[in-house]
TrEMBL record:
Family: Belongs to the phosphofructokinase type A (PFKA) family. ATP-dependent PFK group I subfamily. Prokaryotic clade 'B1' sub-subfamily.
Highest rank taxon of the organism: Bacteria
Gene Ontology cellular component annotations, sorted alphabetically: 6-phosphofructokinase complex
PANTHER family, per the entry: ATP-DEPENDENT 6-PHOSPHOFRUCTOKINASE (PTHR13697:SF4), PHOSPHOFRUCTOKINASE (PTHR13697)
Organism ancestry: Bacteria, Bacillati, Bacillota, Clostridia, Halanaerobiales
Pathway(s) it belongs to: Carbohydrate degradation; glycolysis; D-glyceraldehyde 3-phosphate and glycerone phosphate from D-glucose: step 3/4
Pfam families named in the record: PFK
Name under which the protein is recorded: ATP-dependent 6-phosphofructokinase
Cited PROSITE patterns: PHOSPHOFRUCTOKINASE
One Gene Ontology term of the molecular function aspect: monosaccharide binding
Residues where ATP binds: 11, 72-73, 102-105
Gene: pfkA
Species name: Iocasia fonsfrigidae
Cofactor: Mg(2+)
Amino acid sequence: MNKIGVLTSGGDAPGMNAAIRSVVRVALHHGLNVVGIRRGYAGLIDGDFYQMNRSSVSDIIQRGGTILLSARCEEFKTPEGRQKALHNMQQEGIEALVVIGGDGSLTGAQKIDKELGIPVIGIPGTIDNDLAGTEITIGCDTAMNTVIDAINKIRDTATSHERTFVIETMGRRCGFLTVMTALAGGADAILIPEMNYDLDDICNKLIKRQEMGRLHNIVLVAEGVGEDFKTNRNLDESPAFFISRLISDKTGQETRVIILGHLQRGGSPTVRDRVLASRMGAKAVELLLAGESNIMIGIEGRELVYHKISEVLSTKKEIDMGLYELGTILS
Ligand code: F6P
């Protein structure tokens, strides 16, 4: 193998740059050429490639986002789009790929191996931590710290004004980010897609606290809980607004809503994310050199592991419900 490509795809995540840096420098260390592909799969289709060297990845380990840019590409989901990508890769002499991204990116990666016959290794990069086959994904630790910083600040004003704040966190259909930050941030109620909850119970709890003199609350809501409220609310509305209105109506408390949104995707990666990304980037190159393909690297305990992408995509990520329970007991 002489030349590999690297791309980032889907929602960006802090630590993606550290992963790119590691892929490039470890590949160069092994005498490989590395091509950077801009805008994920869209760049494969457009042939938006550039030769990378050591200095292409200088001074990026501390930066959030991705220097390779990212996109969600509809055209790559079509066989025609993928054939264009194959043609471009053949023209450029790209013999294998490293794909850094979440489940949509891995779905694309699988097609690259199976349909286009190009070896590919996936690196899990998403703040959602919604991928099986790894305890944590690149970017999640930084996002959790961002959420905690936000909760700390919101708590200051919540206590001063004796208000209930409903804070909505990202994560698609996965409540990991919410559970962890609820536990670490001391949330008074936690709503995630994986758990049934009774809004009356939550309101009664807040009323009881009010009677005991506690006049501010932090309610953490995962963006994915919305499905449960389909019949009651406007589908385009964030669940936090619906829940906030309901709490206000039932408890009489003054409520405010904060949608943390894309704030959670930015910022300088934590040490944990940088180290994880550096290790996974290196492992991806080593696995390609060892002849592996169609696998995603993960971490279990201190060890890097890898699983077939098909297994990763067909397995639901389990959330540690013990942590959820602890979060509610401690609240
Ligand atoms: O997958 C990462 C993520 O940030 C999710 O948490 C969120 O639902 C989604 O991406 C937002 O996507 P976009 O940036 O395309 O609006």
